[in-house]
Amino acid sequence: MWAPDMNARERRLSERMPEVTGFPPRACSAASGGSTTPASEKPFHYSYLKEFRVEQCKAFLQHKCNQHRPFTCFNWHFMNQRRRRPVKRRDGTFNYSPDVYCTLYDENTGVCPNSDDCPYLHRTAGDTERRYHLRYYKTSTCVYETDVRGYCVKNGPHCAFAHGPHDLRSPVYDIRELAGVEDEVGSMVSSLEREKGVLVDDLRWQESSFVLTYYKTEPCKRPPRLCRQGYACPFYHNNKDRRRSPRHFKYRSTPCPNVKLNDEWGDPSHCEQGDGCCYCHTRTEQQFHPEIYKSTKCNDVQQTGYCPRASFCAFAHDEKELSAPRELTDEPMTTAPSPLVVCLHTSPLVLHRIITTWEFLINVCVCLVDRLVPKGENEEEK
User: Is residue 152 helix, strand or coil?
Assistant: First the structure.
C-alpha cells in the first residue's frame, strides 16, 4: 500500500524551525536527573519533544517574528506559552506528571511557585505540556485532514497528533503507570481477549451503511489506556465524541447555535434541549449525517492517495462512494450476522478476508483433533 512521504513533510516543516533541526542528539543536562534520548525517536519527533516551546523566540524580543499573529512560532513568546521539556529520570519516573494538573500554576502569567521543579502538569496555552509530553505526543491519530503543504487543517504545522501510520510513535510510560497497567490488564485479560478482535473480526464495519448507522452511537467499554480512541474506535469516549443514532433521533445537518460558536464545537450539554434538539451537537454528528456523509471527496486521498481513517472516513474515497446512496441499515448492531449473510452482502475484498479466516479456523481445529485424539483410536480393528 502506498504511504505518504513523511520525510518530505518533515523537510517542509523543518523550514519553519531551522534553529531546531540541527541540534546534536545529546542527552539532557545532568541536573535533570535523566535523559531524553533520540535512540528510539524519529528526528522530527525528537525535535518537538525536546525543543518545542521550550525557548523564547529571539525574533519576537526584537519585534521581528512574523509568526506571532496567528501564533504559529516554534518557540514561545509569552511565559504562559512556555513548556518544560519532559524527561524520564533514571528511576523510571517523569520529571512532571502527564495527567495531573498543578493547582498553583497561574494560566495568565505562566508562573508556578514551584517553578520548573513542580512535579505536576502546567496548563500552558494550547495545553502544550500535556500534548507534547513523552506520554502522549503523536501516540494517537488526528481526526482532521491535511492541506497541500501537509499541515493539519485544524491544528496547523505543529499538530501533536499523527497524520498517517508513519507519523505515529509509541508512548513512553512512567514506571508507576506501567505497574498499574500490568495489574489492570491482569484482572481483565480474559474480557479483553474476547473483545480484542472486534474491529477486525466484525466485518460489518467495512460497510458504509453500517458505519453510517452505528458509528460513535454506543459507548466504548474498554479502559481508556487500552483503547485506540479517536476515529479508529467506532464507539464514543465522551460527549464531544458521541453521535446520536440517526435511527432514533431526527436532527438536521446544521450545527446547533448553542453548541457551535464560530468555528469551535463546544460541549453538547450547553444545549438545554439535549438529545431532543433538532440540530447537530458534535462534529461527528454533522460529518456522519446522512445528508453529508460521503458527499464530498476526501482531501487526503486527493492529495496523497492515502487516508489513515479507512472505512471510518466520512468523505468519499472514489466516485463510487461519492454517488452511492446513503442509506441506514436495518441490521441490529448487537447480533453478528451469519457467515452466509455476510458473504452475500459484502465486497470481494472483504469476502476474501472471510474465507481466509475460516480456512485458518479449520486448520486450527484439525491440529487440535490430531493432538487430542490418539493415533489409531478411530481406526477399525483388523
Answer: strand
The label of the residue with cell 531524553 reads 36
- Single pTM value for the model: 0.46
DSSP 18-45: HHHHTS--PPPPGGGTEE--STTS-HHH
Contact (CB, 8 A) for 224 and 237 = yes
Percent of the chain past pLDDT 70, that is, above it, reads: 69
Instruction: Enumerate the domain spans of the chain.
Output: 1-189, 197-323, 339-372
Residue 379 pLDDT greater than 50, yes or no: no
> ω before 70 within 30° of 0 (cis)?
yes
Q: Cβ of 197: how many Cβ atoms within 10 Å?
A: 10
In terms of Cβ atoms closer than 10 Å to its own Cβ (0-12, 13-18, 19+), residue 332 is: exposed
Nearest to 146 by CA among 263, 322, 298: 298
Asked if pLDDT for residue 349 goes beyond 90, the answer is: no
- Please state, in angstroms and rounded to a whole number, the distance separating the CA atoms of residues 200 and 203: 6
Beta bridge partners of 131: none
The string of pLDDT tens digits covering residues 128-139 is 999 999 999 999
What is the C-alpha separation between 97 and 122, in angstroms, rounded?
9
Q: Do the beta carbons of residue 300 and residue 307 sit within 8 Å?
A: yes
Answer whether residue 50 shows pLDDT above 90: yes
Residues 121, 97: contact at Cβ < 8 Å? yes
To the nearest 10°, report the CA torsion of 117, 121, 122, 125: 140
299-305-309 Cα angle (round to 5): 65
Cβ contacts of 101 within 8 Å, gap of 6 or more: 120, 121, 122, 123
Instruction: Calculate the average pLDDT of the chain.
Output: 77
Largest Cα–Cα distance of the chain, in whole Å?
Answer: 100
Q: Is the pLDDT of residue 27 over 50?
A: no
